[in-house]
Amino acid sequence: MFRLALIVCITVAPLLAAAGTVSFRVTGADSGMPLANAVIVLPRSADSATADASMIQENRQFVPHVLVVPRGTAVNFPNRDNTQHHVYSFSPARTFEIELYAGVPEAPVRFDTTGVVELGCNIHDRMQGFILVTDQQHGVSNETGELTLDWPDDQPLPRQVRAWHPRLADNTNLVEVAVNGASGEAIPLALDVRPAPETDSSLDRLQQRFRDL
């Protein structure tokens, strides 16, 4: 019994000591402005999918604009607008189509392949959203470009992390970004992104036809 207790103590103690976090601050390389919706992926396995997620259509937008889910997650697409939507994706990571509908589709869409899935709506051309599927630890930056992830205190930070943003020149893939900093402070990461597009909330003629359906 004494030997068993000793083994348990030796096994558990390092796990408790390894707890920690690492923070990042993501900005645009040219503008220096904070980047919201930047995804950072660390080289560390994440938990498998355990619950469903939702990509909502509201005010003719996908909410959230960027959704990151573990591989195997089933995603619902509830429509909260007073117009019908026709959601689709041609991305290799997950090609699918939910034809013209209101309310909540009967079945969610399961995402079993890692990668970037770009979403659109056949009725509202300006609607765009993204689902990023990964099996590694990840986080999404807030409006100030910041995010914090769990990282063991007894492990050195990787020299590079993978990053993604909707306005990357090639937003179908993640990019490698060098890490210059230490845990305990917000590590700056700069991404080469395209300028933010001008917003226009007007409806074209096709959208007008479906507004009240």
UniProtKB/TrEMBL annotation:
Supply the alphabetized keyword list.
Signal
According to the UniProt entry, where is the signal peptide? Answer: 1-19
Q: How is this protein named in the record?
A: Plastocyanin
- Signal in keyword set: yes
InterPro entries per record? Cupredoxin (IPR008972), MauL (IPR034242)
Q: Does the keyword Signal apply?
A: yes
Q: Give the SUPFAM superfamilies listed for this entry.
A: Cupredoxins
List the source organism.
Marinobacter zhanjiangensis
